[in-house]
Amino acid sequence: MKTLTQGTSEELPRQLPPAGAFLYGYVDTTIAGYRTLRRSATTYTLASGNYRGDELAAAITSAGLAASFSNGIFSLGAAAGSSMIFADRLGYLLGIVRTASGNTMGITEPHVSSRISPVAIPLAGFVVRLHEIKAEDEQISDRLQRDIGYVYGAARVLTIEATMHKWSLAALLEGWCMTGRVSFMGPILDTIEPSTPEGSAAGVRILSVAEPVFIGQAQLWATVTFTVALEES
∠ at Cα 176 (172, 177), nearest 5°? Predict the structure, then answer.
């Protein structure tokens, strides 16, 4: 697979179209390493919780530092004559710095994302398909003449095909949203059902992620297929 790099903070808002949907990872701030930042002599610590990617802005604001999130870009409130210090990986998750820790942003630098956050990835959109596990088992049994394998658990298995810009793909390939719990958020917040096909698959578990398939020779856009488990209530 070819190496992908993202654009600068000046390029991101100009070249990324408005997101039609989002893929969000989750950040557990009860674990040290993802919850603090410092502006000059003031330290801001996020309250303990399990935050969806876009919820980090509100969590930072609640900690005392104004923050916002729009179309994949995080922005932190600036103050005259102050530098921003990221002592742990929070700045990396916001897409503001590129490395894990020990980063200091100068007084004149903008405190906005310079790359797409690996926990809040804009998508052009996504298509959801439901696996009929029972029907697939019966079909395989008939073809191979083998015993039926029973499926246990209270989860539905979904295939989600997401279309994204190459910079969103670069953020995905950093790995945060390729395992564990994620949410695919569509134009409306209702759960995906036949009556709400543009809804959201919130809190699903990643089972597998297929290789990306680029669209067209320019390779600006790609589709990625996710297999996920949606827990039944």
Answer: 60
Res 98: pLDDT: 62
Q: How many domains, in total, are found in the chain?
A: 2
* Residue-number span of the structural domain to which 40 is assigned: 11-120
User: Are 129 and 80 in a shared domain?
Assistant: no
Of the candidates 88, 103, 120, which is a domain's last residue? 120
Q: Check: CB of residue 206 under 8 Å from CB of residue 160.
A: no
- In this predicted structure, what is the pLDDT of residue 195? 64
Q: Is residue 151 part of a domain?
A: yes
pLDDT beyond 90 at 140:
no
pLDDT higher than 90, residue 27: yes
Q: What is the pLDDT of residue 103?
A: 54
DSSP strand E in 6-154: where? 21-28, 36-39, 42-45, 50-52, 67-70, 73-76, 84-86, 103-105, 120-123, 125-130
Alpha helices in the chain (DSSP H): 11-15, 56-62, 90-93, 133-144, 166-172
Backbone angles phi, psi at 188, to 5 degrees: -120, 155
At 228, phi and psi to the nearest 5? -130, 160
Single residue among 120, 141, 156 that ends a domain in this structure: 120
The predicted structure's pLDDT at residue 163: 95
Confidence of residue 198 (pLDDT cuts 50, 70, 90): low
Q: Are 101 and 39 in a shared domain?
A: yes
- Is the pLDDT at 77 greater than 70, yes or no? yes
Alpha-carbon torsion, ordered 211, 215, 218, 219, to 10 deg: -20
- 2 CB contacts (<8 Å, ≥6 apart)? none
